[in-house]
Amino acid sequence: MDAIRIYGGHCLDGQTSIQGSKNASLPILAATLMINGVCEIENCPEISDVYHMLRLLESLGCRVERDGPCVRVDAGGLAVCDMPSDSVGVMRSSVTLTGALLARTGSVCMEYPGGCVIGARPIDLHLNALRQMGVTVEERDGGFCARVSRLHGAVLKLPFVSVGTTENLILAAVTAEGETVIEPAAREPEIQALCDFLSLAGARITGSGTGRLVIRGVTALRPVRFRVPADRIVAGTYLCACMCAGGRVFLKDAPADQMESVLDCAARMGAGIVRESDGLLVTGREHGWSCGRIVTGCYPAFPTDLQSLFMAVTAASGQAGEIQETVFENRFRIVPELRRMGADITLRGSVAYVKGGCRLHGATVEAQELRGGAALVAASLAAEGAGTVTNRHYIDRGYEDIVQSLRELGADLEPA
Ligand code: EPZ
């Protein structure tokens, strides 16, 4: 039952509530390690990546309680020990535990983090910047050990923007001695949510949402209650599902102000977008228009996490389009799968050229990573006939019960 059977051709209709942000929840949960007391994180999505992060926190001696979307973490009894490799290895965001553990205990050993197959995803920027804050790093086969007696601030000039590196350095800096400057810092909304959480807990951070963060170390952070914002990538995913299948869907809590580049592109392709006070009303049309050229980049540019989804929409629309991926070196994994469904896509370097005039038909296709898997589900909603998306577990890393959510909107699909 690690697959989804999808019977295409059904329009979507109704409302779906957008879950809390995976990529905001994960660094915030890592940050609770630094706080002596009970933090309450609300609107935490019920997805496998969060499950693995909670397991890691428990393996470090934290007390973790989950009450639906509310998670309570008590890091008072932190006792550093090896983290279960099956959780560290399975997801990339385990690396943000590095900054938190160095800040709290001065020591961390872990395997190199895992993640998707979308690229090499090294952590050289993380480790080089931490060295400038006084950390000694010993790299060995498959992992590293980092130690520091007292983290000190530094002016950290990164060679390029990195979300995870920015997160790790923020966690290392908030209780370090002195001032830390991070530039260029990532500007993603998930970074801003992390800064909001830490500031509520007493950190002194300026520049959140800009490319330059200035952090003045404080002696300690205090336990807080914090609500995770809605997931802009999940909202974009359901927008694409509606554009593929047609119909009208209200995306409750969708953070439209964080989705400008995505909504501009969707409107250009013919989607109806109405901004309400508590969400987005989206309408998919039978025959959309071309996306023209989409180029992914760092926020606020078009997000790489929705690149596969918009490729699926383009292929389903029968229009031509060009999609350039500039963040990861191997993020066109769904192209062979879309070809199996009848798409005509040519790859030249970092650009995918989708040929117009094709009609998708259902096929058995393989999810190979989180967002590509969701894109194949969206494409299958538009396809003629029945199809199957295998390796559902990749999709469950980031989406709360995608089958149930789409069924409630009128799609015809089932676990297989
Ligand atoms: C975060 O990954 C997200 N993951 C990704 O979402 C997202 O696609 C990515 O940011 C870009 O927005 C989480 O937040 C858990 P990066 P991250 O560091 O931090 C290279 C999803 O689907 N790089 O900004 O790993 C790296 O290889 C996931 O939810 C180095 O070379 O992204 C990549 O090419 C997928 N050395 C580029 O930088 C380093 O030390 C950007 O990576 C660090 C990164």
The CATH architecture term of the largest domain is: Alpha-beta prism
| CATH superfamily grouping of the largest domain | Enolpyruvate transferase domain
Strand order of the largest sheet: 21-22-1-23
Distance between the termini: 5 Å
Number of domains: 2
Q: Looking at the structure, what is the overall shape?
A: globular
CATH topology of the largest domain: UDP-n-acetylglucosamine1-carboxyvinyl-transferase, Chain
Q: What is the SS-derived class?
A: alpha+beta
The tally of strands reads 23
Helix content: 25-40%
- Beta fraction of the residues? 25-35%
The total of helices stands at: 14
Cα Rg: 21 Å
What is the residue-averaged pLDDT?
A: 94
Bound molecules: ligand EPZ
**Residue ranges: pLDDT <50 for 5 or more in a row?**
none
Major sheet details: 4 strands, mixed
What is the name of the CATH class of the largest domain? Answer: Alpha Beta
Describe the structure.
The structure is a single chain. This protein is α+β, with helices and mostly antiparallel strands and 416 residues long. It has two domains: 3-18 and 230-415, Enolpyruvate transferase domain (UDP-n-acetylglucosamine1-carboxyvinyl-transferase, Chain), CATH 3.65.10; 22-227, UDP-n-acetylglucosamine1-carboxyvinyl-transferase, Chain, CATH 3.65.10.10. The chain is 32% helix and 25% strand. It has helices spanning 22-31, 48-59, 85-88, 96-104, 124-132, 163-173, 189-200, 232-245, 260-268, 307-317, 335-340, 370-382, 392-396, 402-408; strands at residues 3-7, 12-17, 38-42, 63-67, 70-74, 107-111, 136-140, 143-147, 155-157, 179-183, 204-206, 213-216, 225-227, 247-252, 272-276, 279-284, 292-295, 321-324, 345-348, 351-354, 364-366, 386-390, 412-415. β7 and β8 (143-147) form a beta hairpin. The longest helix has 14 residues, at 232-245. The mean pLDDT is 94. Ligand EPZ binds at residues 22-23, 26, 92-93, 116, 119-126, 162-165, 304-305, 327-328, 370-371, 398.
